[in-house]
Amino acid sequence: MPEMNAVVLHIAQPGEPNNIKFETVSISAEPKPGYARVKLSAVALNKRDNWIALNGYPGLKDGSILGSDGVGVLTAVGANAPSSLQGLLNKRVTILPSVAWGSGGKHIQGPKFRVLGCQPDDGTFAEYVDVLEENVLPAPEALDDAHAAALPLAGLTAWRAVKTRGRVDKGMNVLVTAAGSGVSAFAIQFAVALGAKVWTTSSSKDKIDFAIKTLGVEGGVNYKDKDWTSQLAKLAGGDSERVIDVVIDGSGMLEECIKVLRAGGRYVFYGNTSQQSHTLQAQDMRTIYWLQADILGTTMGSPEEFAELLEFVQLHRLQPVVSSVRPFTKEGWEAALGEMKKGEQQGKIVLSMA
After folding, report:
1. Tell me: the pLDDT tens digits for 183-197?
2. Which candidate among 20, 65, 133, 139 keeps its CA 20 to 30 Å from the CA of 37?
3. Cα separation of 26 and 123, whole Å?
4. Where are the chain's structural domains?
């Protein structure tokens, strides 16, 4: 059997930490029917990868290859592959990390939905990856390998949150929390490109300044300040705290964000990185129904949305924010993981096979 280098998760005994190793593993001679093989040229890390490594995941098995983001060259397809896929052979492609979304279109994922990089699907932290045929699309021509690899998971999450669920449009005031995160950076870029005025939060002045200078944010506030909602209202020029049409939140600041919503506003959340527990008080509930506000959960996105995302990025010449690019080696992997654990990066961390 042929072999390849990969980042492999080894499940530890109860009470002990899992172990992630950069090692050589075997690979089948060709992909299974219904699958396509991509020779990867660049892959990107997500916080999700480290979270899975530390905490496990339902059905996760020893020997799993992690990773959800990647770009490369389509080298092989299974028997009876559609002609559209065969036309991509030996061309640069990107990988949709939403696996088996189902037939619900944009509305909701099906019961077999999962994210690439968990069993039964080995992920992209390898020299080759086999994915379902429907998960292979042409890579954006305007992006090099490192930036194309940084786009899929965080970009798709942000696109669905901003466009499908948040329905952000020109002239709106939009709050994107947690400046500096991968999803937030994309959400800001998309909302700005759609013509919205975008505001942000962070405990880091450097991250707010970066978002203003690089991503087009109007301004930002420190969410650790007790009066940050009032500060935001002053920045946005409002007569009251209610200055925001749409909130895009991955940190889990539900109660605080409700304070800044205008009537008919939308609070869209895709995560809870703060790990806060939420108990809505009677006043909060009255506020929500009196404002006719929407609280919308969202996760990942459909193949249709991924195609829309790639077209939008190409049309607006958007450039994903990349913090660093390292070689896909044992030393490169360890340095990249160390950078992610520090949490000080601005943008995505990429590993290159070049």
Report:
1. 999 999 999 999 999
2. 20
3. 14
4. 3-151+320-352, 157-297
